[in-house]
Amino acid sequence: MKVILAGYNLDNEVINDLKDGTRLTAELTPETISAAYARISRSPKPVNELRREARREVDKARQSNRTIVFAMGHSSVAEHAVFNIDVLGVSRLLVEEIEKFRLCSYTEKSQRYVLFARDYVIPEEVSQAGLAELFTKTVTAQSDFYQELYNKLRPYVFADNKKLAADPANKSLLEGWAKEDARYAIALAYETQLGMTINARNLELMLRRLAALPLTEAREFAGQLYAATKDIAPSLIRYTEPTNYDRLTRLNLRKKSDELFGFYPRLTDKEDVRLIYATPDADIKVLSALLFSSTNLSYIQCSCLAALMRAKDKTAFLKIALENMQAHDAALRELENVDLQFELIMSASCFAQLKRHRMATILAQNYEPALGVTIPSAVRAVGMQKKFMSIMHQTIRAYEQIKKAAPGGASYILTNAHRRRVLMKINARELYHIARLRADGHAQWDIRELAEKMLIQARKAMPLTLTLACGKDSFSDAYKNKIGHPSRPA
Known about the structure:
The protein is an alpha+beta fold. The chain has a domain at 2-80. It has helices at 12-20, 31-39, 47-56, 58-71, 92-98, 124-128, 132-160, 162-165, 171-182, 200-211, 216-229, 244-261, 282-294, 299-308, 311-322, 348-354, 377-381, 385-405, 428-438, 445-461, 475-482; strands at residues 2-8, 82-91, 105-108, 191-199, 273-278, 339-347, 361-364, 419-427. The protein has a four-stranded antiparallel sheet with strand order 1-2-4-3. α2 crosses α4 and α10 runs antiparallel to α11. It starts with a strand and ends in an 8-residue tail after the last helix.
């Protein structure tokens, strides 16, 4: 594992001095920007002068940050300091924990586009339990099958897509399709890398939360992340040790749940998409919000008027809200007033994509082998299903053995094909965004199938609101069918 500080934001006048070769006497730190912006609310001076003062007196700027951020509790000031972090050699399992922090940006090495070598993390928990040999043997078998499967899938994909294959420009696209299906055989222990952009406020929270996890890898990552950043903005990164709230809350909830309900059988139903809640009268609530933002009436008045509208008037009003929409446009913010909650069962490959939709509430259970595995249809097509399942059975035998001795390390051995339950709450506006990306014909098949099933159920709850919720590739047809004429940019 390596955590490298790639960069951080600096005052532009400092950058200009560096370009000019001016000798700098002050420290290079984003803290001066945070301190200057913190003083805006209480100082009559222009902000550029506040920045200049902060650069001249870095120690004073740091003391100001400590007072404002920690003593006074204005934590948003720390968001003005931004870091770019290289993260190398971490497991796919740890990346799921890292990317739980929604107000950060991540770009990850993708198993859809890159053929991975046999590089994986052996969890410390597994080594301490004396099971490293079993772990290595299982991951090696997965890795060998991954390479074999890719070599089978690659010619199949090219043969099955002859028109695309005729153009050499599509070579990497088709190879990518083979890679994305082959990856279902490899473990969550596989190493990956990512670029991360994070502000100081979220950095401090990430350090504390990851240090509280029972995973040794997570604690090591927190330690390296702190070492890489602590000297750059010490006034903004202060409370990095996990509290009892961080360490014990979820652990105690699991213990109490087991105590009260541990005897209940785990359901293994295969219904992978279930809409369990939608805002009642969602279309009327969206109409009410549109009326509210378009008039000076109270919301109660708008709600009553929306409920009294004739069906054709409701449709006409919603059409006005959508008639100038293009496939790349975000839906209006009024759609955030209605919610949907889904219970989903999905593979690790699918979850890796779904978790990137950060404007949502996503609660994921541990991976559950009893839920089975997701098998790409191409694996069946090349006659590798039997061997695929043989690798899955070998994986589960190892998982069960590791779980008994080292519960914290067991999930590393599971593959991208293994499944988990996810509870996801989103508003209608975010569902539009998910639909554009994930119900599109260019989306990976696993998450595309999930998104399409979500849309089918969601449209029953709010048909008018979701009139144009679809993939980008079908937007034009949906527009013609639902709005009545082609949408054109102004």
